[in-house]
Fold this sequence. Notes:
The complex is a heterodimer of chains A (115) and B (113).
Chain A: E1 3-6, E2 11-14, E3 19-21, E4 23-26, E5 32-38, E6 44-50, E7 56-59, E8 62-65, E9 75-77, E10 86-93, E11 103-105, E12 109-114
Parallel strand pairs in A: 2-12
Antiparallel strand pairs in A: 1-4, 3-9, 5-6, 5-10, 7-8, 8-9, 10-11, 10-12
Chain B: E1 4-7, E2 10-13, E3 19-25, E4 31-37, E5 43-50, E6 53-57, E7 64-70, E8 73-78, E9 87-94, E10 103-104, E11 108-112
Parallel strand pairs in B: 2-11
Antiparallel strand pairs in B: 1-3, 3-8, 4-5, 4-9, 5-6, 7-8, 9-10, 9-11
Amino acid sequence: GNSVTQMEGPVTLSEEAFLTINCTYTATGYPSLFWYVQYPGEGLQLLLKATKADDKGSNKGFEATYRKETTSFHLEKGSVQVSDSAVYFCALSDAGGTSYGKLTFGQGTILTVHP
Amino acid sequence: DTAVSQTPKYLVTQMGNDKSIKCEQNLGHDTMYWYKQDSKKFLKIMFSYNNKELIINETVPNRFSPKSPDKAHLNLHINSLELGDSAVYFCASSLAFSNYEQYFGPGTRLTVT
């Protein structure tokens, strides 16, 4: 079956530091890949997505590139802010078979950014 | 206007009770989902409906029963609540069930005492 593995957290950074959160996946078909963010006390919001190999998703200074050869979709940001403190989820969606596009999530990575 | 709304936001109840959570989306989407987030933040699909038809039914106790009266609404009824049901339940919707972005509601925090 499909699975997503994220780097263990929590991650603690100082403001303006560089962020990388690793994400690798296993899928039987040709999945779309997503990063969702959950701010404290809120639901999930889509941060960025990529639908095919070599696509780069980007939003709010965050980027991730769909790497089929390494089955990875690592999240990066060049300079984090305190307001980026949240839980980040890597996820895949596979429309093939009986998946019907359901999202399979990684375990989430808690990011805390200090001033 | 809220795209995906859930009621209630918080639900505290005792073991053995029956409770319902309601979800509504005003996006005109065909597909709706229920996810459960446990205390370690892990998210797992429970059910999905497409145009009022059940298309995903993961390994969930049959005490949980989803109902979709129309494609804008997906409710979750839970019978005989147990301590282990305590979690945050998220509703989501997407245009269709094929790799489209999913829009999430704010969640319902269920606490069973």
